[in-house]
Amino acid sequence: MRTLVLNAGYEPLAVVSFKRALVLVMNEKATVIEHVEGAPIWSASGHYERPAVIVLTRYVRVPGARRAPVTRRGVLRRDGHRCAYCGNAASTIDHVLPRSRGGKGTWENLVACCLRCNNVKGNRTPQEMAWTLRLVPGAPRGSHWTVRGVERADPQWEPYLPLAA
């Protein structure tokens, strides 16, 4: 069981275990907004509702330069597991400007690619192949990229996730 933690301004901060969320609530550092129906937690002093969404009582400053780290899984997810060249199912990633020519492993230079297009393209640029990209690669935006665990969102979280996107 996981709990969505919202900042005092109601933007998503993190996804934590329900135990951690309960400790925050019991220490009065957070309040429960949504709870899981029919799943109480019993203790020696009574029972508590299992939190699904909590909001912090004090605002936590989040660094402004918070960017999602570049990963193979992230590039595939950003591009919808579709090849940036032909649109087929993608299983690999490709450097638009090849690494041997100075291409970096950044969001702006990496795209999802099918194995066939990746092998055909090889060490060339899309311009040399007369290929066009189906999308403009860039860093992903929105809370579901900077908050880990939100990609497998609980249905109770839905009203709170679009607020930060």
TrEMBL record:
InterPro entries: HNH_5, HNH_nuc, NA-targeting_endonuclease
Keywords of this entry: Endonuclease, Hydrolase, Nuclease
UniProt xrefs under Pfam families: HNH_5
Domain HNH nuclease: 70-119
Domain of life assignment: Bacteria
Protein name: 5-methylcytosine-specific restriction endonuclease McrA
Listed GO MF terms: endonuclease activity
